[in-house]
Every structure is written in structure tokens, then in C-alpha cells.
Amino acid sequence: MPAYRAPLDDIRYLLNDVHDIGQLAALPGFEDATPEMIEEVLKGGATFCEEVLFPLNQSGDAEGVALVNGEVKTPRGFKEAYERYTADGWTAISAEPQYGGTGLPEMVRFVMEEMLCSANLSFSMYPGLSHGAYSALMSHGSDDLKARFLPKLIDGTWGGTMCLTEAHAGTDLGIINTRAIPAGDGAYTITGQKIFISAGEHDLTGNIVHLVLAKLPDAPGGTKGISLFLVPKYLPTEEGGIGTRNGVTCGSVEHKMGIKASATCVLDFDNATGWMVGEPHKGMRAMFVMMNGARLAVGLQGLGLSEVAYQNALSYAKDRLQGRSLTGPKNPDGPADSILVHPDVRKGLLRIKALNEGMRALAYWVGIRIDVEHRHPNTVAREEASDLVALMTPVIKAFLTDRGFENTNIALQTLGGHGYIKEYGIEQYVRDARIAQIYEGTNAVQALDLVGRKLSMEGGRPVRRFFELVKGDVEAAASVDGLEEFAKGLGASLYQLQKATMLLAEKGFANPDEVGAAATEYLNLMGYVAVGWQWLRMATVSQQKLAAGEGDARFHEAKLKTARFYFSRLLPETATLLAAIQAGSAPIMALAADEF
């Protein structure tokens, strides 16, 4: 049977020693969010994830969801777990106090999100979608809509969804068919069908608030004609309770290879009553608040699954006796050595470990930037944070989920035949991880967003700021004994990333296919550099701790050894990625359609 323990030691190290979480208490509204308070909150979250959610993960996967008379039934134990989740206040963790939230930093929710995804990804999606609906409504909803719906979303008694995709349109939202007709008194009637709606129907909450993209009768073509509407499953009463059933029904649930305990629904809207969120024809602006939050959350799904897969693969490797070490027996009194003595097994596990710890550091750093963007009193600091969050959002989504799927597969391979068997749990992580590369915009779409939009944002200001941050730490480390090797390697990879950036800028204007052909490699190149930057920061901190005789020496020594593995075995992959980018689009576009 699999097991999970929240990596609290690593989380504590990142928050306190590497990222200085104490800075958040200096932001307006976060005065009570001290490192000590945040640690207690996260300890409680870890206990909930380990003891309540993780035991439901395999059973939920085996049972799945069921559609009965138009109502979705979640697996046994989910409803009780959700009731405890809301009672403990987790749905309110980073929401605004004026509507019933606890007002904690967004970064705290980031950490909790990772633990939720490790413990039970399917369960995490129900409150995760609700938080996304809260964010969009908080940013663009009218005062009336906020007052009527936000308290229920925050206390978890009502759930939320995002309804974008239609069967014929896929990612091309500009051609959606769902229509909204003014009905008087500020309401609209919504008609159309949406597919792939996570948490679109379930029995965890009394009501579900759908945020739906649709077009008004006078809408211009393309995405500039899309508006956003709030469409509840049940219309609220004047007193704020649940009233009559609205014209939205679940036509079917998808039968999927993974996240089987998460209801992925086809929703039919038939003259359903809804209210506009934001301005007419500007629905994408409002929905992107939800979509960008969801993309960061999906990145954490890749990290969370990679972490739990690593824990179980490592435990198996330590206990599994098979073969002897190439340099002589390490367990001479036993029939064989553990498979952890074999270089190839160690290489796979080290790859997961180095990526997990580096990706976690990057994700938490972005989480802190979100809080700075929203709360810092200095305009320049907010602008810088906003730039960096925008730049890193597609990287977090795509790089962490690509590596997450690869890492769960490496973990499965570590178990050999047992990895392929349900009892050991790893095969579920592989299946669950696969969807993260697809939804909330496929990773190819994320790459195109990075090279097509984010690099040119504000005249290239976000990417320049990122380069300056990395370059500054490289230069500072270059003259420090013990850090030179890390600084040299990261400096070389940063140069490769800068070279690739200039190459895309030069070629992209003449031939857009050059940008499309290089996008995925470019995103991965930036991902390896960004994670390498975080490893340089961790190596710097751990070396300082060792020199001062502070903390757990073995912990910090392991950090330096893992950093050395990352810089020697993983970061050099940036050279291959640059070579692929330099090869251009010609080899990709040369074949005619009938030559495939």
C-alpha cells in the first residue's frame, strides 16, 4: 500500500531560510501572518491531507463518480471529508475577510494546494475550482454579485466551476456557440453546451456556481465578442438560500483514464438564468483571472503527484533486495543488496528529487510574488511582481506538469512489475498526472503564450527583469568558495536562454513558424534555468548554514549534493534545447501533408 507524508522539513526550509516568508507579515493586511502562525496552519493542513484525504485516494479511483438521474455521486468518504474540509476553514484560507475569508497570504494556499494534490488530486479539484470562481468574481463581479455569492463560495457551502470549452471549438474560444440573451432586470438567459467541466456536478455542496463564457446577440467575432456570466445550479432566494432549479443540467460524465473521482461533465444550459460578470464582450479579461490561477494550480498538481510518487518509489528502492552492487556487496549478510545501490536506479530517483525540490522552490517563489503584486505599498514592487508572475505562469503550468508526468513514470519504473500493479499506487499517479499536461491549455499552448505574448509584454520588460535577477545571483555566487561550480553552470545556461530569446526575436518577425517550432523547447529551456536559479539560491543558503554550524548538517549537506546532481546532470540539457531551437522550423515544415 502507498503512503504519504507532507514534506514539511523542505517546506519549512524554503519558506524560512530561502524565501524569507517573514516579509509577508510586513504587507498590509498580513500583519498576523507570521512565520510561526503560517507553520502551525500548514502543520494542520498536512495532518488533514495525510489522515483524511490520502486514505480515500485509491478507493476513490476504484469507485469513481456515478451519474444517477442527472445527479453526480462522489465516492464513499468524499462528502464527509469535504464537510470536515469546510468546517476546518480550508476553503476560506486566502479569501478576503470582508466576505468571510481568513485573509492569509496566497502563498499559504500554494503550499496547501501541493499537499492536497499529493494526497488526493481528485478531491482537490472540487474546492480548487471554487477558489477559481471566487477569484474571478472578486476581481470583476459587481458588488451585488459579490454580496450574494462570495460568502457561500468562501465557506464552501456552494461550489464553483469554469465553463469554457465546447465540443467543436476546443481551445479556439472565439468560435463558441453558447448564447446569452438579455432577459430584463439585469439578467440573461444562457443557452448552449459546455464539455470537460471539472466539478460541473456533484453532491459535495448544496449549490454550484458556474462561470460561463457566452456571446451576446450583438457580439463581434472572435474572442473580442465573448462575455462572462454567472449561472448557478439553483437560483438563490432573497434571503440567500437555495431556490428553484435553474436551466442547467449534467448530460453525462466522462469516463477517464485518471482523476476518476473528479466529475468531468457535459453541461447543458437551456434558457438558464445568469448575470454578467464584468463588461459586455470583455469576458476573457475576467475569465483569465480564473484561468491563470488554474494554470498555476495545475502546475502544483504535477509537483504534488511527483512528490508522492517519489516517496513511494524511494521507500520501495530501499527495501527491495535484488542483485549486488557493481563495486561489491553492500548487504553482505543478506541474499542481495537493495536496488538503491544501482546507479541507474539512483539516477532516476535523484532526477525526481532534484526536480521536485527545485520546482517547489520556484512555485513558492511565484506564490510570494502574487502576494507582493496584490499587497505591496510600493508601485514599482507591485509592477515587478506582476511582470514576473505573468512570465512564470506558463512555465509553472507546463514545465512542472511535463516533469511531473515524466517523474511519475520514473517512479513506476523503479518498482518494476510492481509499479504496474494497482496495489502499490504508482500507476494511479501516472494516470492522474497525464491530464495535467492537457487541461487549462495544453502545454504547447502555454509555450506559445510564453513566446508569443509574454516575451514581448511591455517591450520585453518581464523577461529582462528575470534575466537580471538570475544574473545578479550568478555574479554574487561566482566569487564564493564552494559555489563557483554552480554559478558557472547556471551562467552558461542563462547565456543559452538569452541567445535563444534573441534568436526568436530576430526570426519570428520574418517567419512566425520559427516561433511556433521553437516554443516548447524554449519554455523547457527557461524552466531548467529558473529551477537552476532556485537551486543556486538553496545551495547558497545551505552552504552558509553549514559554515555557521546552524541547523541540521545532514539536511544541508544533502541539499548541496542534490544541487550538484542538478547542475551536473540536468541543467546541461539546456544545450540540447538551444540546439533544437537553432535548427529552426524548416525540418518540421518540410514534409507535405501527403508525405506523412
Task: Explain what this protein looks like in three dimensions.
With about 600 residues, this protein is of the alpha+beta class. Helices cover about 55% and strands about 10% of the residues. The protein has 17 helices and 11 strands. It has helices spanning about 10-20, 35-55, 55-65, 80-85, 105-140, 145-155, 285-320, 345-375, 380-415, 425-435, 445-455, 460-480, 485-510, 510-550, 555-570, 575-580, 585-590, and strands spanning about 65-70, 70-75, 160-165, 180-185, 185-200, 205-215, 225-230, 235, 240-245, 250-255, 265-275. The strands form 3 sheets. Strands 3, 4, 5, 6, 7, 10 and 11 form a 7-stranded mixed β-sheet that branches. Strands 1-2 form a two-stranded antiparallel ribbon. A two-stranded antiparallel ribbon has the order 8-9. Strand 4 and strand 5 (about 185-200) form a beta hairpin. Helix 13 (about 485-510) packs parallel to helix 15 and helix 14 (about 510-550) packs antiparallel against helix 16 (about 575-580). The longest helix has about 35 residues, at about 285-320. It is globular.
Task: Write out key terms for the chains shown.
globular; alpha+beta; single chain; two-stranded antiparallel ribbon; 596 residues; 17 helices; 7-stranded mixed beta sheet
Briefly characterize the structure.
By secondary structure, the chain is of the alpha+beta class. The chain has helices at residues 8-18, 35-53, 57-63, 78-87, 106-140, 143-155, 283-319, 343-375, 379-414, 426-436, 443-454, 461-478, 484-510, 512-548, 553-570, 573-582, 586-589; strands at residues 66-68, 71-73, 158-163, 179-184, 187-198, 207-215, 226-232, 234-236, 242-245, 248-253, 264-277.
